[in-house]
Structures are given as C-alpha cells and as structure tokens.
Amino acid sequence: MRRRSFVFGASTLLISQLLVGCDGANKPNLNVQVLKGSIPGRIIKQFQESLSQKAQLKISPVVQLRELFEKLESFQREKKTGNKSAGFNISLPFGDSQPSTTDLVTLGDFWLKGAIEEKLIQPISLEKLENWSNLSLKWQELVTRNDGGLLDKQGKIWAAPYRWGTTVIIYRRDKLEKFDWELQDWSDLWREELKGRISLLNQPREVVGLTLKKLGESYNTENLQKVPSLEKELQSLNKQVKFYNSTNYLEPLILGDSWLAVGWSNDVVSILARYPQLSIVVPSSGTALWADMWVQPAGEVSKDLSNKWIDFCWEENTAKQIALLTKGNSPISTDIKASDIPKRLQKLLLTNTQVFDKSEFLLPLPLSTVKEYDDLFNKMKTG
Predict the structure, then answer these.
(1) Which of these, 285, 174, 191, lies nearest to 240 by C-alpha position?
(2) Which pLDDT value is given to residue 25?
(3) β 29-35/104-108 pair status
C-alpha cells in the first residue's frame, strides 16, 4: 500500500535537525527517521527543552512510507553483514559524524505486519510510557499483535500511533451542484450522472473495500464468496471510472477532467485551501483508516530516549500541535475546536464519532484472501 505525503509549510520539519554542541559526544543520542510532514519542527525543540539532560537529536525526514519500510530492511541487512552504514553520516564543521544507530522510524499501519514477520522491529516496553492510557482501546488493539503480525489481545506492543487519517471522496462542487442530490456516501459513486467522471485509487483493498462497505460488509471481509453481489457491483462501478491512479489523481480533478476522486486525506489537505471549487466527504457508512506510528528497529536502540519521545508525542498539548500543524488527526483526545481549524478542513479534522466507529483499518488478511481481492480488482478493471 502506498500513501503519498504532502508538501508542508515552514512550521513543519524541512531538513534534518541537529541539536549538537561542542560536548555533543557526551550527550545521549536519539536518531529518528520520520515521514516528511508528519511532525512539526517546533515539537523537536519543545522535546529538547523538556529533557532534564540535554540530548543530541538527529531527525531525518523521508518522503514515502515504502522508503521507510525499505530502510528498516536495509538496517537489518547491514547489521547482519557488519556494515554500520544504516545510521547517519552528516558532515559537521569538525568533520563527519560517526555512523549511529537509528532509534525510531515512522511506519504506516499497513506495513506493520511485514515488519514484525521479517523481524525488522522489536516490541515497545510500556514500563515508562505513562501516556499509553491516553489511547483508546481501538488504538491499543491495533498495535497489539503476535509474532506473526496479527492482532492478538495477548500479544506484544509493536508500535506507537501518533497521527491518523482517512480515505475520503473529493469532488468538484461546481460540477455536482446542478444535481438534486447531495454526495454523502459510497453508494453515490454508482449514480448515473457520474458515469465516466470518477477516478479511483489503484488499490484492490481500497476499491473492493469501499464496495463491500456499500453492501454493508467489512473492509476486512475474508470470505468474498459470501457476498454474491460483489462482482456485479464492482463491474457496475467500473463503468463509472475514468481512470485508476494512486498518485496523480488530484490534478485531473483540478483541471475538470474528472468530477470526483477517491483519495487519502493527507493528500487532500494540501490543496483544499488553494482550490475553492473542491470539497470533501467522509462517507457516512464508514471508511478506511490509516495511521502513522513509531516503531523501534530490531537491535540496540536508545530505548530511554525513544520512550520519552513516544510519551511526549502522546501528551495532550503535543498531540494537538501535531494534529493542527500537520493537518492530520490525533489518536489522543484533545480539546481541538472548530474555531481552531479552517472551515474547509473541518470535515477532515473534526472527528465524527459515529463515522469513526464505523470505519476500519485495513487489517492483515490470509494470502489466499489477498489474492481474491487482487483477482476481483483486476477482473473489474478489464470489464
């Protein structure tokens, strides 16, 4: 699964940030590889100021979640071969710094099962995480898994979610306002007026999933044979589609080549302010959720500082800043009000509890079921 990150403003982390002094060698280190745009730069400074002992922080932004997963894989390969280039090698005024261990990495929830299975990450200890209780049960269960990466209430804690978003419908208000109906849910994608006007993500779990949701089923349905109308519904939906794309689906919408697109909320927030003709809907029957989370690479890491950083991200004030400054949602309950958010972003960033409760993460499925999703999706696209 690929999810794009958006271009972000000056208030967020733009470059690798070093807090290093002449005595840097005597300070504890925290090296973090973070999804670009998912952590505000000011949070780094606030965390530094919160520590009783000054620390050397190295924050390296990475554009894609896939790249972060691949970095986790390369860390383990390099450890096995004795090559320590997995850390950073940043030029300093007095020469190059020594390669160091990466302590924390942003990972998307979709990648968590693979990271556990491949032994790329290690469990997180709750011993010093005072704010774990600030997470609702839904979030705690998402990251509690067995050694195969499957949800397991008796399992270990493998990740720490700090930001989340949704799959949404983005549409051209000027194109749809002539109709006598209002876009509200997935079922509206099948309306005759939208034939040949829609772009969908090129993702089987997303497209088959939203169709299942339209039929009152779960995104994570394992036995697709028990949904006899599914294939017919997918074929009908395909007639509505102009193209399938997971990266460049917003440009045609802006140009008017399509009237409606299904996409990810973090892609959308960056353009809503610039294009007033665009509006969004979070489907009322529920949608797919995604989460950015911290994981600790397998091996020796700075667990003390890592845990302090995770706990700091779960403090209410920090969580609120992450949500507001990165235009995302927080897994921590905050006092965010409508007045804190631009009106055009309120549907995205003010959580509708009823819709959220009906929404789902794309959970791991058996390989045979994954193949069924892929096969159905490919058959759908070929008509």
Answers:
(1) 191
(2) 56
(3) parallel
Sign, CA dihedral 143-144-145-147, equals positive
For residue 29, give both structure tokens: 């280190």
Q: Which residue has the tokens 């997963």?
A: 69
Q: What integer is the mean pLDDT of 288-301?
A: 94
CA-CA distances (angstroms) from residue 86 to 26, 68, 101, 276, 303? 22, 12, 7, 44, 18
CA-CA-CA-CA torsion sign (65, 332, 166, 229): positive
Which of 20-24, 31-35, 323-327 is least confident? 20-24
Q: How far is residue 57's CA from residue 28's CA, in Å, rounded to a whole number?
A: 9
What average pLDDT does the segment 184-212 reach? 97
Characterize the bridge pairing of strands 56-62 and 17-18: antiparallel
Count of all residues that appear for the chain in the document: 383
pLDDT in tens, 220-244: 999 999 999 999 999 999 999 999 9
Mean pLDDT lowest for which of 2-16, 227-241, 261-275, 351-365? 2-16
Burial of 151 (0-12, 13-18, 19+ CB in 10 A): middle
CA distance 86 to 58: 14
Task: From 329, 332, 371, select the one nearest 351 (Cα to Cα).
Answer: 329
User: What's the pTM?
Assistant: 0.86
Contact criterion met (CB below 8 Å) for 163 and 38 = yes
Q: At 82, is the pLDDT very low, low, confident or very high (cuts 50, 70, 90)?
A: low
| Distances 230 to 83, 128, 209 between C-alpha atoms, Å | 50, 47, 10
| Predicted confidence (pLDDT) at residue 85 exceeds the cutoff of 60 | no
Residues 291, 150: Cα–Cα separation, whole Å: 16
**Separation of alpha carbons 44 and 300, rounded Å:** 23
Contact predicate 260/197, CB 8 Å: yes
Which residue has tokens 């160091």? 100
Hey, which bits of 198-339 come out as E strands? 198-200, 241-244, 260-264, 278-281, 288-297
DSSP 162-205: EEEEEEEEEEEHHHHTTSSS---SGGGGG-GGGTT-EEE-S-HH
